[in-house]
Amino acid sequence: MTRHETQPFDGQKPGTSGLRKKTRVFMQPNFLENFVQATFDAVGGVQGKTLVLGGDGRFFGREAALTILKMAAANGAARMIVGQGAWLSTPAASNLIRQRGADGGIILSASHNPGGPDEDFGVKYNMSNGGPAPESVTSAIHQRTQEITEYRKLDAPDPDLDSLGETGLGEMTVEVVDPVAAYADLMETLFDFKALRDLFDSGFRMRMDSMCAITGPYAVEIFENRLGAPTGTVTHATPLPDFGGMHPDPNPTWAHELMDEMMGDAAPDFGAASDGDGDRNMILGAGTYVSPSDSLAVLAANAHLVPGYAGGLKGIARSMPTSAAVDRVAEALGLDCYETPTGWKFFGNLMDAGRVSLCGEESFGTGSDHVREKDGLWAVLMWLNILAARKMSVAEIMADHWARFGRNYYSRHDYEALPIEQAETMLGDLRARLGDLVGSEVEGLSVASADEFAYTDPVDGSISRGQGFRILFEGGSRVVLRLSGTGTEGATLRVYLERYAPEPDGLDHDPQEALAPMIAATETLVGIRERTGRAGPDVIT
Ligand code: G16
Q1: Is the CB of 56 under 6 A from ligand 1?
Q2: What fold is seen in the domain 407-540?
Q3: Segments of the chain with pLDDT less than 50
Q4: Region Disordered: what ranges (predicted)?
Q5: How far is the centre of ligand 1, averaged over its atoms, from the C-alpha of 488 (Å)?
């Protein structure tokens, strides 16, 4: 029997990046099945199609992959290309979709959220361009989840996901592939591997923290096997179902082991971390933290030194809450710079239309048009290639960059797991007052403009509203507020703070001190601490 009756579940609306829920929610009978069937239906069915399937190795990933394979077979798919062990990093999945000309793919991951039976799980659909489904498709998926009455699933033994090669599942072919090889080969086409081998030969020391998540096997293959970095350069290199209890989010709060090492006396020259599914990155030098917005700006300014980008960039895009540091580089290089809502899916059209080749977000995501996802190890290799070419330390590169372009002090303050109603009321009150704010003085700062960001996609004309509140102060400082679309518990309020300092003597301050006026103004305007009773943010990036 392949047809199974079912009833809709509430709450199957994809967020910033696919559907993310507590793992046990996904493990309820029919929950995963409903969402996957709704996805298949929303993309016009999968009859005769080829899809890529894999995930970040988290708890329930293998079981979910087996279910999805049986559903794809019952829905008439011709071929499923699956990473061995159901493993694929998000950028590697994007690459496989493109390279193999697949019709799309399913990625099993809740990204940087912790994994395990009591933590998070997620499912995301990517299109034939290798990128996350756009809002038109995620809305259609959600619509379908609300009316679903049956799903299809083949009653068959589990296919073998551990041996490379092809097997049959009903009429469908299951092709199990090495999850790493094609991705590592792609990296060799973009970067100067000889220069990087020479760098490691010369005694350059690097620490890559894979946080017990999917990049471990990729990082070992690329840095240790192909580039000759010493064994042990990659730490927490084995993907584990619960990420060894780590919270695989590469930021100073969660990657604290790496932070301690890089800020310590015997720090290596270069440090990096990636997240659960391998699309995020954090960049560090000895004693130096590089904010994601600054990292994007440095990559833009130096991309011409990297073989894959030696011909120049087509254009640049950043998400709205990301700092304007990269805008200054784009201006200097005469490149277009686009400002999109949060979510990698908004970059896809711009890349497909050949308008941009470099994109980035403050949320530790950077990437290029080599795939249609952000790519953690790619960003690490970009930095390595730039370090090898410029023969400078990370700290020297940052100082040089700020001296040339000025510095956009930047920080994000997150208040996590707030009661949803409280968070929505707080922002609702702000929305009601936006019009009155312009021209007012707050903690010594005058408000130059205040609005709620809406985006018109320049390629297809689609409009996305309600993408965050922007309050701009005279002099170029600003604060942005929005609710996260990736959390699974209550509401996470993100407060993005930015201040531009053009003067050379204003470049070397602690960002929290430099941003103190904006932090005070936000409290006066929104009253976050007063209304939530929180003493301060849970995470500061
Ligand atoms: C996802 C999206 C990113 C987004 C980030 C944070 O990243 O792909 O584009 O910037 O979430 O989103 P939010 O602020 O709504 O939580 P990932 O790494 O979780 O897939």
Answers
A1: no
A2: TATA-Binding Protein (3.30.310)
A3: none
A4: 1-20
A5: 13
